Amino acid sequence: MSIINNIEKYVLAEIVGVLGKKTIDPDEDLLEQGIIDSLGLMKLITFMEETFSMKILDEEIIPENFQSLNSMASLVKLQSQA
Question: Which one of 58, 65, 70, 75 is least enclosed by Cβ atoms within 10 Å?
Answer without folding.
Answer: 58
